[in-house]
Amino acid sequence: MSDDIRIDDLAAPVLSEIERATVASAPPMDLTPDLVLGAAMAETGLSNFGADDFRERLGVWLQALDEDRGQNDFGRASSVQSLIRFAANRLKIEDVLAREPQILDTPIDRPIIIAGLPRSGTTHLVNTIARHPGLRSMELWETNEPVPRDDERNWASDDSNPRFVRSNDVWHVMNNVLQHWSAMHEWAPGHVHEECELQSFDFSSYMLDWFARVPRWQQYYCDHDQTPHYLYARKVVQIMTWYKGPNRWVMKSPPNMENLPAVFAAYPDATVAITHRDPVAVLQSAITMMAYLDRLRRKDADLPGLAQYWINRIERLLRKCIADRARIPQDKVIDVMFHEFLADQRGTVDAICARADLPVDAAASAAIGGFLDDNRRHRHGRVAYDLAGQFGVDIAALRRRFQFYYDRFPVQQERVSGEAA
Questions:
Q1: Cα separation, 142 vs 376, whole angstroms
Q2: 51 burial class (0-12, 13-18, 19+ CB within 10 angstroms)?
Q3: Which of 138, 181, 277, 402 could lock onto 338 through a cystine, CB 3.0 to 4.6 A?
Q4: Whole-prediction pTM value?
Q5: Residue 2 has what pLDDT?
């Protein structure tokens, strides 16, 4: 299409004036636990982080980030600021639970939980289902700060909520600095976000893979059962429910796909919808988005290195999904093929609600239909991809590598740029 967004400088970014100023704004920064935890305590005035086991994981996070020598000062500083926010949230979580222990008695009722590869329709699906008035969801502003400050327990209109305002400020900055970001990933404060953010407060989440190239953390994460961290995230969901119901949730997160037993350990009565998309198409979308962010965060784009990192990561995720798929309650899982979802979005949503025993009355139907009408795909523009030309990927070899997944699930293979007919 002539109106496709083509980003031709991923390998050697030519920064705009505002991009250069953004990169130059960050000072050199040491990656130390004392820096992260000290800043979080200073920000909140709190000091109780709860169980100390998180400190080992925080140490691995920081070591893994420090080992990524391709990051520039802005990349390192951005990662540290995220870790400080995670630690500050942990302090506030422990504080409110100490003051209000009854929160842990708050029931979570039959949640709908979406799993699936990044860029496989999970974001659009969760935002659509979240229109159902009987469901609770975690919008970005709330996920960023699930515990309000004592003077900000204000559930008035979004534009007067200080947490919403802070999230909205970040969204406007990102859109101002990175002109194509909204076409790649919706990050508006009212958009439903991922619950893996909540696991980051326990410093165990695949979120770190999105910050930098962190093979040390990736290996640590995969070597450890994530059930305790899903249970930690459930506590945060209980806190958010206690502040504002209802107590039936719809949530989504890509790493749910590789942690299916942990999902059901935390939410035994959940219904899980797993989206399945051609991993080759997923990769070209995900790593193009990552490379676009990296123009701000890295000294050397190293696109082939980025591609290999995520090929390995996605393969590991898919193999774990297949291994665990038979270990979970079959009547509580529905597999959603991406191409079928695109062809019949309303039918897919209705099928998931039916599996979850969630009636769709006239009001819910109107809300869901209205959202679908207002949120057409590519409404912010469509990004043109070049997996072979820009990232040096042998697409035929990549398809052979993922044959195990094609054999297990009837995903439709999507033709990508540079692929032989």
A1: 25
A2: exposed
A3: 277
A4: 0.94
A5: 44
